[in-house]
């Protein structure tokens, strides 16, 4: 049986499912074609996490608006700013000006089960061109990790082609997706590497960790 891109995609989704990441097909998500956030997931997370602070619908919409329309000169700067929001949080001015600013975190780092996870495949994204990433890992509605697969049995389709697909064509045609990108993962089922969207290919590393004590290595598995 040939292990092509479709079977590889299915295998990765199954592996992630075993680790607690439920699968959703892109066509099953209610969204505009140009949207890359899953706003319902982000809304639900914020409403639950900040319920005791009486967060309002307007304040939640302001947070989503802040992420979507962050002013910046280029993709790198926007990505850097949003990664700082995700890692460090930010202050939100309250709808009621008499209330103290609310410290917002987009991920609950103290309780990982309090976050909302999804692995989404075949989601059509309309940017400058229509593109369909092989897989996107969402946390609280944020598309933090993008996967691109190539088949190891096709000599003309290499893992380097997956790298170029993400870092050249996709970043050019659907830059909105990569505003929120923390990592890119490329795989042909034999070689598996991860790295930053903005990193040269030689800085993509193979993932060989099982229990968390092994070292990352550059070469494919």
**Count of discrete alpha- or pi-helical segments spanning 4 or more residues:** 6
**For the largest beta sheet, what order do the strands appear in spatially?**
1-4-7-8-9-10-11
Structural class comes to alpha+beta
The average pLDDT is: 90
Overview of the structural elements:
This protein has 221 residues and is α+β, with helices and mostly antiparallel strands. The protein contains six helices and eleven strands. It has helices at 5-18, 39-49, 57-68, 75-88, 159-173, 175-178, and strands at 23-25, 90-92, 102-104, 117-121, 125-126, 130-131, 135-139, 142-149, 183-187, 192-195, 205-206. The strands form three sheets. Strands 1-4-7-8-9-10-11 form a seven-stranded mixed β-sheet, sandwiched between helices. Strand 7 and strand 8 form a beta hairpin. The chain is globular, with a radius of gyration of 18 Å. The model has no long low-confidence stretch (mean pLDDT 90).
């Amino acid at each position: 049986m040939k292990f092509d891109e479709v079977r590889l995609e299915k295998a990765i989704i199954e592996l992630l499912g075993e680790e607690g990441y439920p699968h959703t097909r892109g066509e099953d998500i209610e969204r505009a074609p140009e949207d890359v956030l899953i706003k319902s997931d982000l809304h639900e997370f914020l409403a639950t996490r900040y319920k005791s602070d009486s967060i309002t619908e307007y304040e939640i919409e302001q947070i989503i608006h802040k992420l979507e329309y962050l002013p910046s000169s280029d993709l790198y700067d926007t990505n850097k700013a949003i990664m700082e929001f995700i890692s460090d949080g930010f202050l939100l001015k309250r709808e009621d000006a008499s209330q103290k600013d609310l410290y917002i975190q987009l991920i609950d780092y103290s309780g990982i089960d309090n976050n909302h996870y999804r692995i989404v495949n075949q989601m059509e994204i309309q940017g400058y061109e229509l593109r369909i990433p092989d897989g996107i890992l969402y946390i609280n509605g944020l598309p933090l990790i993008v996967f691109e697969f190539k088949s190891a049995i096709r000599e003309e389709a290499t893992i380097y082609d997956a790298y170029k697909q993400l870092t050249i064509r996709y970043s050019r045609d659907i830059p909105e997706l990569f505003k929120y990108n923390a990592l890119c993962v490329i795989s042909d089922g034999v070689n598996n590497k991860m790295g930053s969207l903005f990193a040269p290919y030689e800085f993509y590393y193979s993932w060989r960790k099982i229990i968390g004590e092994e070292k990352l290595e550059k070469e494919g598995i």
